[in-house]
Amino acid sequence: MKKIKKFLLTIAMTMIFSVSAFAASGFEFLFQLAGGPGVVIPNKEAKDLGIKGSLSSDADISAQIGYMFQVKDGFGISVLGELGYSWDLYMMGYGDTTVASVAGTYIAKDGLDFSQYYHSFKIGLLPKFNIGLGGRHGLAIGIGGGVKIPLAGNMSTTSTSSAVNNATTIEDVQSKVDINLKRKDITDMFSPAVIGYMKVTFDYYLFFTDNIAMNSGLYLGGDFAPKQKETKIGGNSFDIGLQLGFRFGPKA
Predict the structure, then answer these.
(1) Residue 225 class from Cβ within 10 Å (0-12 exposed, 13-18 middle, 19+ buried)?
(2) Which backbone phi and psi does 186 adopt, to 5 degrees?
(3) Other C-beta atoms lying within 10 Å of the C-beta of residue 160
(4) What does the alpha-carbon distance between residue 222 and residue 203 come to, in Å, rounded to a whole number?
């Protein structure tokens, strides 16, 4: 987390000191929806147990608030704070948790499915480079990150065993645990109890007026998800998704 904070501070200071001779500037506000799929990358402790990464997913509603400084006609730099709500899912496991029923008995292989999802408050910094394309069109490239603070969530585990012969109930070969998490549970069970994130965004702006535009685009993001305190097992994720919203602010 210290490296993320240092990275964000470096970006912010670079943007501020590089815009001392701006010709114009303006307040900027964006409201957008975003989401997409990804993949979980397990850490060393998980890999040592044979656990492999599976799917991840995220979705969020966020507002980006700040200022755009125009360096020259057709190019500006925005320094934006980001606030919002985020939902994030992480899945890992090994083997096969499918249970088959044959002639009144249940048969399974060795397997484990583990998933977590969180409802989080999101706060970050997202500087952007704005490029005017003339007329009603513009582009923006953003590089930033921050933290998601999980306020609630869920953790579920499904495990199966192939060692049971002539099982007459599914519970003999399969075990399920489902736990709803509150903020205190998350701080007690995981470390860190926040999700660090970094992302790169690519936006296209279609202006209806000189200060109002619809934005659409995509993002590439990485999450540093919470790890279990006792076992240190966990994983990070890489996601790619789409974003759509509205922008209020000057053209580059």
Answers:
(1) buried
(2) -65, -45
(3) 23
(4) 18
Locate 30 and state its tokens: 């964006």
- Cis amide linkage into residue 226, ω under 30° from 0: no
SS3 state at 10: helix
- Residue 85: how many CA atoms within 13 Å on its side-chain side? 5
Backbone angles phi, psi at 51, to 5 degrees: -80, 135
Asked whether the whole model's pTM tops 0.90, one would answer no
- Tokens linked to 140: 């923006």
Backbone angles phi, psi at 183, to 5 degrees: -60, -40
For 249, the 3-state DSSP assignment is: coil
Contacts (Cβ under 8 Å, ≥6 apart) of 38: 55, 56, 57, 58, 221, 237, 238, 239, 240, 241
Average pLDDT over residues 143-151: 98
Q: Which two tokens stand for residue 117?
A: 């999802």
| pLDDT tens digits for range 163-209 | 888 888 999 999 999 999 999 999 999 999 999 999 999 999 999 99
d(C-alpha 179, C-alpha 63), whole Å: 31
Per the structure block, which two tokens stand in for 231? 């076992």
Q: Report how far residue 247's alpha carbon sits from residue 231's, in angstroms, rounded to the nearest whole number.
A: 44
Q: Give the residue carrying structure tokens 């580059």.
A: 252
What does the DSSP 8-state code read for residue 208? S
CA atoms within 13 Å, Cβ hemisphere of 116: 24
Residue with tokens 């900027």: 28
* Nearest Cα residue to 7 out of 127, 123, 121, 122: 127
